[in-house]
Amino acid sequence: MNPVRVRFIRDGLVGQYGDVLGGNGPGAALRGLKILDVGCGGGILAESLARLGAQVTAIDAGAANIAIARAHAELDPDLVKNLKYEAVTAEELVERGETFDCVTSLEVIEHVTDPLEFTKSIAKLVKPKGALFVSTINRTARSFAFAILAAERVLGLVPPGTHQFSKFLTPGEIAMMAGHANCEMVELAGMVYDPLRNKWSLSSDTQINFIAHCVKSS
Fold first, then answer.
1. pTM of the model
2. How far apart, in whole angstroms, are the C-alpha atoms of residue 52 and residue 62?
3. Among 23, 106, 128, 135, which residue's beta carbon has the most beta carbons within 10 A?
4. Model confidence pLDDT, tens digit, residues 14-45
5. 44/164 Cα distance (integer angstroms)
């Protein structure tokens, strides 16, 4: 899934910031941008964005996740100069007064206690006219069948109980919460898995996984 998420984010940021970015080379597409990844886990997205030239700060409340992410990043010396990990919460960064050109939070919001307050918190970290990217799982019959029945109970791809269907969020709910956080959803895409090719692709089908690009007002 990560390659299609990265492509959506890269293309969205190039469209939004293209006139101020550093270049067209493989490591320059996002050069000049300061990006925060909230709930970074093992750092797979953060590393990808750093390799595109952005200055990336990646945070996770779990110190163990940060330790794993740091250890993996140390295997690539090129990441040292523009990738930083911290075991802190978004709320702590808000208190420190930090802001970023772009904030990403992927597959996180469906696990928090209060998604609206979470959205407001991470939006406070976005500069005026900056970007916010959120991905999650839609609340549909298909998402229940695939994300819970198949992934958790049949195939064992993730531990049972990882997801709660009641905490899945629709694109409309994400747009509403973004609006309450002074952001407007400007683009939406589904992410669809093809088991025959073992490949993810972007799609207009948002019935299961989807990703949204929002822009903060001034």
1. 0.94
2. 26
3. 135
4. 999 986 676 666 678 999 999 999 999 999 99
5. 24
